[in-house]
Amino acid sequence: MIWGVFGISNISLQVQGAVFRRRLRVFLVFEGVIMRKKVLVVDNSLVTLKILTKLLEKENYEVETAEDGLVAIEIMEQFEPDIMIIDLIMPKITGDKLCQIIRKMPAYDEVFLVILSAIAAEEEIDFISFGADACIAKGSAEETIKNILTVFEYAEDRNTAELSRQIFGIENVQVRQITKELLTSKKNFEITLQNMADGFVALTPSGKIASVNSVAIGFFKTPEEKLISTTFFDHFAANQKDVIVDHFKKITNAAIEIGEHSPIILHGRYLLIKMIPVFCEELKSIIVLIDDITKRKSAEQELQEYKIHLEQLVVQRTAELEKVNESLKNENLGRQKIQDELVHFSRQWSRTFNTISDFVSVHDQDMKLVRVNKSLANFLGQDAEELVGRYCYEVMHGTPNPWPECPHVKAIETGEVVTSEVNDPHIGKPLLVTCSPSFDEDGKLEGTVHVARDISQQKLAEQEKEKLIADMQSALSKVKQLSGFLPICASCKKIRDDQGYWNQIESYIRDHSEAEFSHGICPECAKKLYPKEYESIHRQE
User: Which whole number is the average pLDDT over 339-347?
Assistant: First the structure.
């Protein structure tokens, strides 16, 4: 297989009064056949797509366009590009994520990836780390086109070292404060998603997977690059797929939950699935929250089976004692259902942050609250705005000093995620707290993101199970049975016990059953033992 240069084209572009000329190689020879180089442009701006298409087609490139990453992946099934120009900030799949997915596809190892970034001035972009070959800062249309042509020329000359050392056009863009703030919020949101206990999946209105967090990847047991752009329902068994599709079609304005009563099982795990529609004038996406309820379902099943087993034992023992004893009353087993669920995710970070049922908060290094979600604010009985700027230990623990073994302190010291159980009477309920360090774009530690979950129901369920087992074992221990052959004296009617001792019959029966005796004397024995008294009483009668 021999690749060679066949032809060249002159490009002239008027840029700020000067003529910019480049000689680009746009043809390839593959086994003697002339082929134009193929370019796939991915950008959610239709204007950008039209401008780049017009420019590249004028230079004899074969051009295809896609308005987002999902569409790009579908196009690549039929169109194999030599070069891809990818916008960094896009809905559904971001440019960096799309680059990572492409680099994990063996068929596209040699495709040349160019990132276009509108945030190059606000955030340092390590484009090499996610698989891009070059990065261009979005500026004016003229500057952007000029930089694209420059990058193409470097690529043709195989000057990859120069491409990796710089972001082309960054000198012509200015830092915007609002963009930096939005990027910080985005990072906090991403940290929350990756450290929450539940799986997170973003779907298109047609059910295609646009993004997932690490927990969801674990549920599907499929690499992220193979999950993206696949249909969500296709990952489930046929009968469960029909159930999920049926509920998906019924989504209107409210969230839909499935899996509590009709089991949804994936790779041996019982899942509770909540689908939340996100609107912006029209349905834009569906957020799917996936809770692993396998342990809870197993505990419920064990409780149910143990209850049935104990009830059968009680019935069996009671039936055996009906001949010699009163019936035992069977105690009904009460069962408390445990249900932990996260609330709705919405179309943007603020709504998602405020609809999570866990207590979520952002802290700076000094342990002051930077942001508090609605669940935590309601629990504390204050507005979220009033809590900002206060020390977390004063708000949560009512103390002037940090809580002993505070996970925030450990996370700051180690720079790693810390999870611990907090039982403080001042809070009033046990919490499972996950504390994740948060870093700025320069890698400097800013603070932590806290996610605290109420585990009081889990604790109560464990206590109830232990109490139930103790109660039923106590009931069984009280069940006594009198059966078999009894050695009895033919004369005095005493009974011999297992140790060889002879016992009065009433003492033996009382010790081996629930019966009690009341002594009297029959007429025949009274006449025999007390004849005078008997005759006297008989005459009076």
Answer: 39
